[in-house]
Amino acid sequence: MKQALNTLYVTTPEAYLRLEGETVCVMIEKQKKMQVPLHHLGAFVLFDNVMLSPALLGRCAEDGLSVVWLNRSGRFRARLEGPVNGNVLLRQAQYRAADDRDKSIKLAKRFIAGKIRNSRQILMRGARENKSEAEKSNLVHASRLLAGNLKKLPTVQTHDELRGVEGDSARIYFDALPKIIKPSARETFNFTTRNRRPPRDPFNALASFLYALVLSDCRSALETVGLDPQLGFLHAVRPGRQSLALDMLEEFRAPLCDRLALTLINREQLNAKDFDKREGGSVLLNDKGRKTVIGAFQTRKQEELNHPVLDQSLPIGLLAQIQARLLARFLREDSEDYIPYLQR
């Protein structure tokens, strides 16, 4: 089993990272705040105007270490990429599958099946833990509607039909999700629908931030196995869009992002002071909030679970790598189907 490599998240504006021997030094206002062995790191995720020395940039490109820059809200800005790696035959198989209508819709349905099924698991768990009979009933009803949408997927013939089922499922899910937030936190984390670009309430700001973190992991995993993260099967292909990474993100939204968001809220690890309101009505996590979320996210990634396909215990931080390898196996025709990650 591949060892889970750590990701270094740097949120302090104007921080400077430099190479010192075989270590990375984090400098803030010309003072060394942290020093980490390079071989302990698998990726860097940098927020705002964090800078790297030319020597460190070159070493990252040479060693294939991922370096991603995000803005304050977690939206992708740029990525460092070294020489193109991976098996060209695998990418050819990916391109052929994208042009094959049957394979393309089959994979798209698998991603959405994972998304709906995992969303349903969140609602069912929320229903079991909810003390209000009315809200429990509402969550159970929503989970049954999602189960009905899952049953529709085998008969879906086109991407447009699939997006219709996905859109209806997302509406059902987000209509019910606020009932999982404990009553004392609802004044701060009240929301009525999913909104983004920009998010307009604390819950959506938190969700968007977590989605961006997991999206970065998905893209890195796809590149690691040699797939093209821009050529997807569900999301339309557009210049600069990480379509395949967005495809893979769908199966992780509920179990990795929404579940962690609910935990942080219900355990009162986040409150109104962790968010800033901006002109135009946008809401973003502030520096304190981001540090809390990133710390919880890194801790969560170290936790282990039993992968339903491999029937093997592994760190949550390796899920994207495993799913990328399962997808590559399907595209190479080494397996008959792609099974999305399904939360137990």
Automatic annotation (TrEMBL):
Enzyme Commission number(s) from the entry: 3.1.-.-
Chain positions recorded as Mn(2+) binding sites: 166, 235, 250
Presence of the UniProt keyword Manganese in the record: yes
GO terms (BP aspect): defense response to virus; maintenance of CRISPR repeat elements
Oligomeric form and interacting partners: Homodimer, forms a heterotetramer with a Cas2 homodimer.
Keywords: Antiviral defense, DNA-binding, Endonuclease, Hydrolase, Magnesium, Manganese, Metal-binding, Nuclease
Biological role stated in the UniProt entry: CRISPR (clustered regularly interspaced short palindromic repeat), is an adaptive immune system that provides protection against mobile genetic elements (viruses, transposable elements and conjugative plasmids). CRISPR clusters contain spacers, sequences complementary to antecedent mobile elements, and target invading nucleic acids. CRISPR clusters are transcribed and processed into CRISPR RNA (crRNA). Acts as a dsDNA endonuclease. Involved in the integration of spacer DNA into the CRISPR cassette.
Superkingdom, natural source: Bacteria
Family: Belongs to the CRISPR-associated endonuclease Cas1 family.
GO function term, MF aspect, one: hydrolase activity
Protein name in UniProt: CRISPR-associated endonuclease Cas1
Cofactor or coenzyme needed: Mg(2+); Mn(2+)
Organism for this UniProt entry: Methylotuvimicrobium alcaliphilum (strain DSM 19304 / NCIMB 14124 / VKM B-2133 / 20Z)
InterPro entries: Cas1, CRISPR-assoc_Cas1, CRISPR-assoc_Cas1_C, CRISPR-assoc_Cas1_DVULG, CRISPR-assoc_Cas1_N
HAMAP family on file: Cas1 (MF_01470)
Keyword Hydrolase: yes
